[in-house]
Design a protein that fits this description.
Belongs to the CWC16 family. This protein has about 300 residues and is an alpha+beta fold. The chain contains nine helices and eight strands. It binds zinc ion. The site of zinc ion has 8 residues, from loops.
């Protein structure tokens, strides 16, 4: 038997040992056509995919399991309703591995939760939802009964009288809206034609401008914004550029242009230090301010 799950699932792989006289592939390999799903068949359990028919609360961790979530469930017959089998589905919730048991209820055409979960209550009041309750089949049958009719006729008539003015008004509104369907249709078509024409015009304009997109119609607001924009003149630009160049350059005169950047800055800091000491010394009157004089050029004593 091939160990490749996909090959087993397809059931198309015929091993070399197989011969037609050995029967079907399943028989040859001694397996059930449903494979793993039939592994508990001797206990009357078939493993199927079960889809949750309504929203439920998990009994283990109280989280919600939504309608439509699927489970691998063990399906087995637990009884009969007349000749209809009652099936039970046992599954483990994905959230906390809690066991949930759900059964079919053929009498009410429903699923009922037996254990492990709680159905989320989503029933609502008819009045809250502002709808009408349609008469159930039983009640509809009863209407053929003259006594039932007699008992309920009074109330039905009263209800009719109550809602009649409203119904008449709604009918009138609806009639007035749809009375002249020719002109309604005409107006609608005219609007669509106008729209089409406008789109064509706009496309033509954008084509002439060499644009690949359709421009929106010009608006006053846009015009005001564009008028407020001022582009810089050549003079402004030059002034700005010059100022930027000045701001970026060193404030010290560039005497040793040949020296490398780091060496130059080192020299400059040294020179600054010497100037500072010389200045303070000359102020104290201790040393002849040779350096100071030299650098300043025209200081006289
Ligand atoms: Zn859970």
């Amino acid at each position: 038997m091939s160990s490749l799950a996909a090959a087993r699932a397809d059931n198309f792989y015929y091993p070399p040992e197989w011969e037609p006289k050995k029967g079907s592939l399943n028989k040859f390999q001694g397996q059930h056509p449903l494979r793993e799903r039939a592994r508990k068949l001797d206990q009357g359990i078939l493993i199927i995919r079960f889809e949750m028919p309504f929203n439920i609360w998990c009994g283990g961790c109280n989280s919600m399991i939504a309608k439509g979530v699927r489970f691998n469930a063990e399906k087995k017959q637990v009884g009969n309703y007349y000749s209809t089998k009652i099936w039970s589905f046992t599954m483990k919730s994905a959230c906390c591995k809690h066991e949930i048991v759900i059964q079919t209820d053929p009498k009410n055409c429903e699923y009922v939760i037996i254990s492990g979960a709680q159905r989320k209550t989503e029933d609502y009041d008819i009045e809250d939802a502002e709808t009408f309750a349609l008469p159930a089949d039983e009640e509809r049958g009863k209407l053929a009964d003259p006594f039932y009719r007699l008992e309920h006729q009074e109330e039905d008539l009263r209800k009719k009288k109550e809602v009649e003015p409203l119904l008449v008004r709604l009918q009138r509104v609806s009639d007035s809206r749809h009375a002249d369907d020719y002109s309604l249709n005409r107006a609608l078509r005219a609007r669509l034609r106008n729209q089409k024409r406008r789109v064509e015009e706009e496309e033509g304009v954008s084509r002439r401008m060499g644009l690949g997109i359709r421009l929106l119609p010009p608006s006053e607001e846009d015009a005001a914004v564009t008028a407020a924009v001022r582009f810089a003149s050549k003079f402004d630009r030059n002034r700005k550029n010059k100022r930027a160049a000045i701001m970026a350059s060193s404030i010290f005169p560039d005497s040793s242009a040949s020296a490398s950047g780091s060496k130059r800055s080192e020299l400059e800091s040294k020179r600054r230090k010497i100037k500072a000491t010389a200045a303070s010394a000359s102020l104290a009157g201790r040393v002849k301010p040779l350096l100071w004089q030299h650098s300043a050029g025209f200081v006289k004593h």
